Amino acid sequence: MKQVIFTEFGGPEVLRFVDAEEPHAGPGDVRIAVRAAGVNPVDWRIREGQVLGAHPTVLPSGVGLDAAGVVDEVGEGVDGVEIGDSVFGEGSSTYAEFAVLSAWARMPEGLGFEEAAGYPSVVETALRLIREADVRPGETLLVSGASGGVGSAVLQIARERGITVIGTASAANQDYLRDLGALATTYGEGWVDRVRRLGRVDAALDLAGSGVIAELVELTGDPGKVLSIADLGAPEFGVRFSGVAGSVPDALAEAVDLISRGKLHIPVEKSYSLTDAAAAHADSHAGHSRGRRVIVV
Predict the structure, then answer these.
(1) Which of 9, 11, 13, 135 sits between 20 and 30 A of 262, alpha carbons compared?
(2) What is the enclosing helix (H) or strand (E) of 250?
(3) Chain mean pLDDT for the chain
(4) What DSSP line would sit under 67-92, residue for residue?
(5) How does 62-100 read in b/e, with b if 16+ C-beta sit within 10 Å?
(6) CA nearest 85: which of 33, 45, 26, 36?
(7) Omega into 27 within 30° of 0, i.e. cis?
(8) Is the dihedral of CA 249, 31, 75, 59 positive or negative?
(9) Cα four-point dihedral sign 53, 238, 246, 187
């Protein structure tokens, strides 16, 4: 099969498109013929060699955590899924023609593979952040870097729960944030004052790692009410770095419910082939996204 790997840490140029042995479903797993794989910032952080405790890396390594596809192997002890089922979920080395998933759910009716591939890690992260921020209905959550995949999910899930959301993003993405129900403003000079004019901030999330932790603490008045998934220096400000996933099966179940009820939709901004994985990583690293990027197999 064809697969994307890296044999050394570094920039997008270390990614290689190679022939590899097919993986097989172990106990409790399923294997899928991959139709699409989600492109997440954690993918290029791992490729760069960043120390992420939840994702230890042994070289050579495959790339990717999220995927959607068709089940073609069912591991021992697995029930509730059959060969031929369309599923989406989380596993390892998903930038490939075949991948093993350790957590999955059947795709809701009407959901395509490209869009489905963008949900698993994104929804788990969004649910975890809202839970860890302990933000309640009627309160206001500030999301810095709100237009990407996780931000898009946070905005929609928080609004569904009765939480007011203020989102920062580029000027080009202001209408996108408003369409998702957020109070929107741009980042850049004067952004703290612009946020203050929109209202009180009870909790804040840093999704972009753009060096705004001190300002988020200032706006909330409490480092315990700020979380980051993108700035490894956040603990220097007393702010938690949230990098350990919760229950992916629970997150997938909630994603299926929200998608089926029309309460969650994250658009695919751009699709790439397996041979263009380096470009996908470069674009993801550059930021300014609107929704998700995916690899189409």
Answers:
(1) 135
(2) helix 248-260
(3) 95
(4) EEEEEEEE-TT--S--TT-EEEEEEE
(5) bbbbbbbbbbebbbeebeeeeeebbbbbbbbbbbbbbbb
(6) 33
(7) no
(8) negative
(9) negative
Amino acid 52: pLDDT: 66
Q: Please state, in angstroms and rounded to a whole number, the distance separating the CA atoms of residues 30 and 13.
A: 31
Check residue 291 and report its DSSP letter. Answer: B
| Angstrom distance (rounded) from CA 2 to CA 202 | 47
* CA–CA distance, 250 with 219 (Å, rounded to integer): 32
Tokens describing residue 208: 């972009």
- The dihedral region occupied by 68, where left means phi > 0, alpha psi between -120 and 50, and beta the remainder, is beta
At position 270, the amino acid (one-letter code) is K
Residues 84-93 have pLDDT tens digits of 999 999 999 9
Beta bridge partner(s), residue 207: none
Q: 248 falls in which pLDDT band (50, 70, 90)?
A: very high
Residue 245 pLDDT grade (very low, low, confident, very high; cuts 50, 70, 90): confident
- 174-224: pLDDT as tens digits: 999 999 999 999 999 999 999 999 999 999 999 999 899 999 999 999 999
- Rounded CA-CA distance 99/120 in Å is 15
Q: Is 252 helix (H, G, I), strand (E, B) or coil?
A: helix
Distance, CA of 112 to CA of 269 (rounded, Å): 14
3-state secondary structure of 248: helix
Residue 287: its pLDDT value, please? 81
Q: Please state, in angstroms and rounded to a whole number, the distance separating the CA atoms of residues 224 and 235.
A: 10
Q: Are 63 and 4 in contact (CB under 8 A)?
A: yes
